[in-house]
Amino acid sequence: MNDTSRTYDVVVIGAGPVGENVADRTRAAGLSTVIVESELLGGECSYWACEPSKALLRPVLARADARRVPGLRKAVEGPLDVPAVLAHRDDIVFHWHDEDQVAWLDSIDVALVRGHGRLDGPRQVVVTTPDGDTVRLSARHAVAVCTGTGAALPDIPGLAEARPWTSREITSAKAVPGRLVVVGGGVVAVEMATAWRALGSEVTMLVRGSGLLPGREPFAGELVAEGLREAGVDLRLGTAVASVARDGGPDGEVRVTLGDGDQLVADEILFAVGRAPRTEDIGLETVGLTPGDWLKVDPTFRVSAVEDGWLYAVGDVNHIVLMTHQGKYQARIAGAVIGARANGEPVDESRWGRHVATADSEAVPQVVFTDPEVATVGLTAQEAEREGRRVRVVDNDFRSVAGAVQYAEGFRGQARMVVDLDRGTVVGATFVGPGVAELLYSATVAVVSEVPVERLWHAVPAFPTVSEVWLRLLETYRG
Ligand SMILES: Cc1cc2nc3c(=O)[nH]c(=O)nc-3n(C[C@H](O)[C@H](O)[C@H](O)COP(=O)(O)OP(=O)(O)OC[C@H]3O[C@@H](n4cnc5c(N)ncnc54)[C@H](O)[C@@H]3O)c2cc1C
Ligand SMILES: NC(=O)c1ccc[n+]([C@@H]2O[C@H](COP(=O)([O-])OP(=O)(O)OC[C@H]3O[C@@H](n4cnc5c(N)ncnc54)[C@H](O)[C@@H]3O)[C@@H](O)[C@H]2O)c1
């Protein structure tokens, strides 16, 4: 067993999309930087989350769109080519290898230590390498924890022994389960039910709440529920799981007992009920924090409870927004602020300033890749009202949009714009319908730039595009 010690300006623990971006930015600020990774560079997103799930969904949504185009429908009537879809997913995740990411890290001159990193007191990180060696890393300026999350599993009798699937197994599955039970009504649940139903599974969704996609405009969950049911998903709302058992050997069936005593049998059961921080075993106790907790940070991503401001937590692990693009946004800002502090430069903490992630609270965009797609940014009507804002909620059906009618026969969808009447700006938008994902950036720019609604009249959408929904929303607002 070998022990070595090295000193860098910055130590980053976790090379997911967020850790990689923190390292990129601290290196760009002239700071020597090392990153520690226990599995694959690229993290959950690249291998078991965003990338594989979207590779599975792309053919599903493209086929659904094509089936809405007269003249094309017949050409796409058949089933998906499952081996080709799975092979494409495998290509997208680089067959679970990370050589390309290593080459990129080399190209930006960031050092890599493979192994499990743990804090060991202020500014110290100890890495246990796969060979059992120990590498001690000291940070002159900052340690950034970017260890992300894993799937959360509820405490349900029999669950652990039943070997449930989580986001990892569902995104990397090598074959289509004949009967799949999906527990949960959030983003992972609706996306994976959409994908695997289209790939051939009989899907039953067990949703504890009264609707899908809680926290968004209610019509989003309703339209997605309609789409899933039309696709043949057995969607059961208000349904709790009481216990789970797997009969027989490893290939045995899963028996699910519901809250009302009913039972159902499946080949696999996916639990998609949220995330837990990967902080159980990262030495938090050595710096006065509690293992297993989310890491609470100040507006510049410093862990608030730790003295001297050397510990940062960025991305999923700080529980602010659990999405790759927003985590990378945080990473760019955290990297810049670590650089500014180390180089003795001023820190700009003003609203929309260089060193504060203002969009985390004002304008988080998200696309849910279901049929129909759901694209949201900013506040929902309910959130705006809860904040005490005086708002006007403007709704429009896409059927009045010529571009939508061209895009898909019988285009079904809805748009909502939330206008802050005191500021005269759009503070939230939701689009639901086929292909609406690409509308979202326009709404994000409108919210972030605080464009007066009066000026939006001069942003003319081309005819005939789906973007003309903006014009319909403005016309409805004007009355
Ligand atoms: C099924 C699914 C689909 C998703 N789809 C999308 C999507 O379409 N769009 C989107 O924006 N978001 C999506 N997300 C969310 C997205 O995956 C996360 O927000 C993102 O991965 C967070 O990045 P991160 O770098 O903070 O953490 P992670 O990606 O979890 O990376 C953390 C890294 O740290 C490493 N690590 C952990 N502990 C240690 C340690 N002690 N020592 C060394 N290394 C360690 C891990 O191995 C990992 O590589 C999805 C999530 C799921 C589950
Ligand atoms: N397209 C995307 O942007 C995308 C895709 C997938 C995941 N993600 C991110 O990943 C994160 C995790 O997604 P997720 O779907 O696991 O979590 P989620 O928080 O979106 O949804 C979890 C759902 O499970 C339900 N639930 C919680 N505990 C339960 C229990 N014991 N029994 C039954 N239901 C229970 C909740 O009510 C909720 O509806 C999200 O924050 C999401 O933003 C993003």
TrEMBL record:
Q: Which residues form the FAD/NAD(P)-binding domain?
A: 8-323
The record lists FAD as bound by 54, 117, 316
Name any Gene Ontology BP term: 2-oxoglutarate metabolic process
Segments forming a coiled coil: none
State the free-text cofactor note.
Binds 1 FAD per subunit.
What is an example of a Pfam family matching this protein? Answer: Pyr_redox_dim
What protein family is recorded?
Answer: Belongs to the class-I pyridine nucleotide-disulfide oxidoreductase family.
The protein's name is: Pyridine nucleotide-disulfide oxidoreductase
Annotated source species = Streptomyces cadmiisoli
